Amino acid sequence: MTIINMTRLDSNAADFSTQLKARLAWDASEDLEIHQRVMAIIADVRNLGDDAVIEYTNRFDQCQFKKAAELELDKEVLQQAWNSLSAEKADALQTAANRIRAYAEEQKMQSWQYTEEDGTILGQQVTPLDKAGLYVPGGKAAYPSSVLMNAIPAKVAGVGELIMVVPTPQGESNPMVLAAAYLAGVDRVFTIGGAQAVAALAYGTKTIPAVDKIVGPGNIYVATAKKLVYGQVGIDMIAGPSEILVICDGETDPNWIAMDLFSQAEHDENAQAILIAEQDEFLDQVEQSINKLLPEMERAEIIKTSLTTRGAFIKVKDLDKAAEVANLIAPEHLELSVADPESLCRKIRNAGAIFMGRYTAEALGDYCAGPNHVLPTSSTARYSSPLGVYDFQKRSSLINCSAAGADRLARTASVLARGESLTAHARSAEYRIK
Ligand SMILES: NC(=O)c1ccc[n+]([C@@H]2O[C@H](COP(=O)([O-])OP(=O)(O)OC[C@H]3O[C@@H](n4cnc5c(N)ncnc54)[C@H](O)[C@@H]3O)[C@@H](O)[C@H]2O)c1
Ligand SMILES: N[C@H](CO)Cc1c[nH]c[nH+]1
Ligand SMILES: [Zn+2]
Fold this sequence. Notes:
The structure is a single chain. It contains 17 helices and 15 strands. β13 (333-337), α14 and β14 form a beta-alpha-beta unit. It is 46% helix and 16% strand. It has three domains: 8-20 and 240-369, Rossmann fold, CATH 3.40.50.1980; 32-235, Nitrogenase molybdenum iron protein domain (Rossmann fold, 3-Layer(aba) Sandwich); 401-430, no CATH class. It binds nicotinamide-adenine-dinucleotide, L-histidinol (HSO) and zinc ion. InterPro entries: Ald_DH/histidinol_DH, Histidinol_DH_CS, Histidinol_DH_monofunct, Hstdl_DH. Its EC number is 1.1.1.23. This is Histidinol dehydrogenase.
C-alpha cells in the first residue's frame, strides 16, 4: 500500500532552484507566528521571572510545579539515576562518553605567543567560559546522547559551571538523561524546556542562574528563542529540527537508505529528509522501501508528516551535480552513500557533518562515533560548525610592548591617530617615544 508519495524534483528543470527553495523554506507565516509567540514568552520571563517559567512549564509540558525550588533536581537524584542504570545502558553511555571526550580533546585551542626582535610579545590567551547553559531537548523524545554531546566538550574546555535544562513532559524525567548528566559532571539540572528555559538562562531568575552562553539543540521554539536572546548571551548556533541529505549512487540497499531517511524524520514533524540520486528506478525502489517499512516504525506518524511535508527526492544527472545541490542545501547531516566517498567529499563545502560510505549510517554519529551531534541546521552550515570545545573557549589578545617596541609602534600609531583627528590617542602613543 502506498502511504507516502515522495515529492520529486529534477535538478535539470528550469524552475528547480525555485522549487528547491520552497521545499527548504519554513512557511513564512508560521515562522512569524512562532517568532511572536517566543518573543512574548521571553518578555514574560524577563518581567515575572520564576512565576512565568513555572506557568509556561506547567502549560506546555503538562507539569504541576508550584514552587520554583521544585524545578531543580538534587545531585543525589542524578547519582541515584546513574547507580540504578542497567550494566548494558551504563556501558553504552560510558563508551559513548569516552569516544566523545577523545574526539573533543583534539579540538582544544591552546594559548600562544611569539616575541619580536625588540622584545615585544604578542599572543592570544585562551580561557574557558565561566558558566554555560546546556539545552537538552525533551519534548517528543528524551536525549541522553545530547547531554553527553553538550556537556563533555564544555568539561574538556574547563567551563566553571554547567547548568543544564531539560523539559520533563508530564513531570516524568528520563533516568538515562539524569544518569548522563551525572556521568558528564553537569553541576545543576533544571526540569524546564522550550523558550522559557532559554529566556531563564539568558536573563536569570531568582532560582535559575544567568549563564554566559547557551548551547544545544531543540525544536523550532528553542531555536527561535536562542536567536532572540543572542547578544544578551552567546549562543553556539541555530540547531533546530533535524535534517538529513543522502546522496546515493544507486548501489546501496534501498532499505538502508529508507531507514536512514526515517532516522532523522522520526525526530520531529518539522525534520527534513532528502535523497539525491541519478536514477529514477532507484528513487522508485527507495519509495517502495519507505512504504514497506513505515508501518513497522514506532513513530510512523511523525515520520509520515515529516516526509510528506518537508521531504524530497531530487534527481540529478551526475554526482558532480549532486555535490552542487548539496552545497546549496547546506544540510545538517550529509550521507555520501557512494562507491568513492573521498572524492565526492572533496566537492562538499557546506554540511554540518559528512558521513562517508555505505556503512556510515548517520545514526552512528548521533550516538557514539565521537564527533558532536549538535550541528547547524536550516542551511546555517554555510557559516556554522559543529558544537565543539572551541564553543566553550574564548580568546583574549595579548600585547606586551618592550620600551624599544613601544617607541617603534608609537611612531606609526601617532601618524594614524592624527589622521583620524584623535589627539588623545596620538599623545598617549607619543608619550612612549623615547
Ligand atoms: N540539531 C541538533 O543537533 C539536534 C539534536 C537533537 C535533537 N534535535 C532536534 O531537537 C528537537 C527536539 O524537539 P522536542 O520538541 O522533542 O524537544 P524540545 O525540548 O526542543 O522542545 C520541547 C519544548 O517546546 C516547547 N513547546 C512545545 N510546543 C509549544 C508551543 N505550542 N508553544 C510554545 N512552546 C512550545 C515546550 O516548552 C517544550 O518544553 C527536534 O526538532 C530534533 O530534531 C536537533
Ligand atoms: N540527530 C540528532 C541531531 O540532529 C541527534 C540525535 C540524538 N539522538 C538521536 N539523534
Ligand atoms: Zn538523530
